[in-house]
Amino acid sequence: MRILVVIPGTPAWRRHRAMERCRASAVHIQTLLDQELFPSEFEADVRQHVHDCPPCAAEATVIAELKIAIVRVSQRGDAELAERLRRVAIELCED
Amino acid sequence: MNGAIGGYGAFGTRRCLCSAGLGNERRPAQVLDGVLACLMIDDNLQNPDVDDVDDLDAAEGAVVPPATAEERRQRFEDWIVPEIDFLARVARSMSKSAAEAEDLAQDTLLKAFKALGQFDGRYPRAWLFRIARNTAINRDQRSRERLLGEDDDLDRRPGTGSESADPGDILVEPIYDEVLERALDELPPAFRLVIDLVDIGGMRYQEAADLLEIPVGTIMSRLHRARNRLRVAIAGTALDRPLLAVDDVPTEPRS
Predict the structure, then answer these.
(1) Chain B within 8 Å of A10 (Cβ-Cβ)?
(2) Is residue B80's pLDDT more than 50?
C-alpha cells in the first residue's frame, strides 16, 4: 500500500487537493447537469468547483452540449415516425 | 388482477404513478419528493403476454368502458395521441432498425386502441410504454425462435455480418449530428432507452428507474456509460473534447 505524504501548504499538497476535488466533482457533473443534485451544501460545492476549475467546466460544457445535441438529433429522427403514427391514429379513429 | 397487462388502468389505486412525474418539465425538488414517493409501477407485469391486451382487468380502477365508438375515439385522441412523440422515441430505442421501430410503434398504437375500454386514462405514457415494451419482448422472442429454426439460412443471408460502411461515407467529412445519430442507433437498447427517457423525455432518474423497474444507481450508471460511448463515437467532430483526465487538473487550486 502506497502512502502519499503531503505537507499542508506546499505545492504538492495544493495539487493533491485540487486533484481530489476534481475527482469528486467529475462523478457529479452529469448529475448536476441533469438537475439531480438537489440544493445543498454539497451541490453548492460541486457547482462552485465546476465554475472555478477549467477542466471541470470544460467537461460540464461538453456534457451540456451533448445533451442538447441528443435532443436535437433524436427529434429530427423521430419526427417522421411520429407523423406517420399520427396518420395511423387518424385512420384508427376514422374506421 | 394477474392478467396480461391487466391493471394498467388500475394501478393508480394500488400503487400511485403520478402523471405529473412523467412530464417533460422539471419540477421543484420539494414537490418532486412527494411525487416520487408514490411513483410506483405494478410489478406483476414483468413479462406479460401483450397478445392478451384485450384482457385488461379493470377490477381495481374506476374504468368506464366507452359507451360508443365516438367516445372511444375521443379517449384515444385525448389520452394516446398526445403521447405519440414519446411512443416514437421509445419504439426507436427498443428496435434495431427504423422499420422495426415503425412496426413496434404501430402495433403498440393498435393494441392501445383496442384496449382503451379497459384503461382509465391515468398515466397514458406509462401505459403505452408498458405495451410497447411487452410487444418488443414478444417480438424478440418470436424473432429468436424464428432464427433458431433457420440457422442454416444465416450464412446465406446478406447483410447479417458487420455492416460495412458505404465507401461514400468514408469520404464525406463526418458531421456531428450524423455521427451522433449513428452512435445513438448503435447504443445497446438498455443504454438508448435511458438516454431517451432522461435526456430526451426529460424524466428524472427516479421516474425512469420506476418505469424500467431498475435501481436509480443503474439509471445513473447507464447514463454515464451511454454518454461516454457517445463522446467516444463523436471523437473527431466539431464538439469533440477529451474526457476529463487527472492530467487536466490545474496545478494550483482556484477555489
Answers:
(1) no
(2) yes
Are the beta carbons of B231 and A62 separated by less than 8 Å?
yes
pLDDT per residue over B5-37, tens digit each? Answer: 333 333 332 233 333 333 333 333 333 333 233
**Residue B3 DSSP label:** S
State the smallest CA–CA distance between residue B161 and chain A in angstroms: 25
pTM (predicted TM-score): 0.56
Tell me how far apart the alpha carbons of residues B51 and B135 are, in angstroms, rounded to a whole number: 8
B102 chain-A contacts, CB cut-off 8 A: 81, 84
ipTM: 0.74
Cβ within 8 Å, pair B253-A81: no
Q: How far is B86 from chain A (nearest CA, A)?
A: 9
Q: List the one residue out of B29, B25, B7 whose CA is nearest residue B16.
A: B7
The pLDDT tens digits of the residues spanning B194-219 come to 998 898 888 899 989 988 889 999 99
Q: Residue B31: is it exposed, middle or buried by C-beta count within 10 angstroms (0-12/13-18/19+)?
A: exposed
